[in-house]
Amino acid sequence: MLSVRLICVGKLGEKFWAEAVREYAKRLGAYCKLEILELPEQRLPQEPSEGEIRQALDREAALIESKLPQGAALIALCVEGRPMSSEQLADWISRQTVCGISRLCLVIGGSCGLAEQIKQRAALRLSMSPMTFPHHLARVMVLEQLYRACNIAAGGKYHK
Fold first, then answer.
1. Positive or negative CA dihedral for 157, 82, 116, 42?
2. Rounded to whole angstroms, how far apart are CA atoms 73 and 76?
3. Gap between the Cα atoms of 12 and 120, Å rounded
4. Residue 85 in domain
């Protein structure tokens, strides 16, 4: 069975986000072993400088790197990443498993994004959209798309 780790910088705030995450985590149980890790977002001043942002991203990157599972295909969620349809994501995941990859690790950065060093390690830089979304919503969207991709790969009807 596929093992998936979702690393998220920042905590879920409102109860409704947590409920949506729980729902998709439950659904994903039929397709994979899912683990969700929340890492603390670095605090920044109201109007941070480029240097302060870079330092915060570097500290977050160190935490992320300490949680990356060995041998996992890393997917970095970033706005400059590759946009994919649900079918394309399902195909990408299926190709990884055919190549012997049994672990995926998806990373969602904090409000300032992800450090370049994390993006460079990624097997896939994935963009959900050129639009900006709250990271809480991005977490739900990623889980929904992961569920949809797994369902597509299994020949299910959810996608239709």
1. negative
2. 10
3. 26
4. yes
User: Among 46, 45, 44, 26, which Cα is nearest to 36's?
Assistant: 26
Among residues 42, 44, 46, 36, the alpha carbon closest in space to that of 8 is found at 36
The CATH number that applies at residue 68 is 3.40.1280.10
What is the pTM for the complete model shown?
0.94
DSSP H helices, the chain, are: 15-28, 50-67, 86-98, 116-121, 135-153
Tell me the pLDDT tens digit for each residue of 85-144. 999 999 999 999 999 999 999 999 998 999 999 999 999 999 999 888 888 899 999 999
Indicate the number of domains in the chain: 1
Burial class (CB in 10 A: 0-12, 13-18, 19+), 1: exposed
Flag whether 159 is in a domain: no
Instruction: Supply φ then ψ for residue 62, to 5 degrees.
Output: -60, -40
Residue 23 lies in a domain: yes
In a domain? residue 160: no
Structural domain boundaries enclosing 124: 2-153
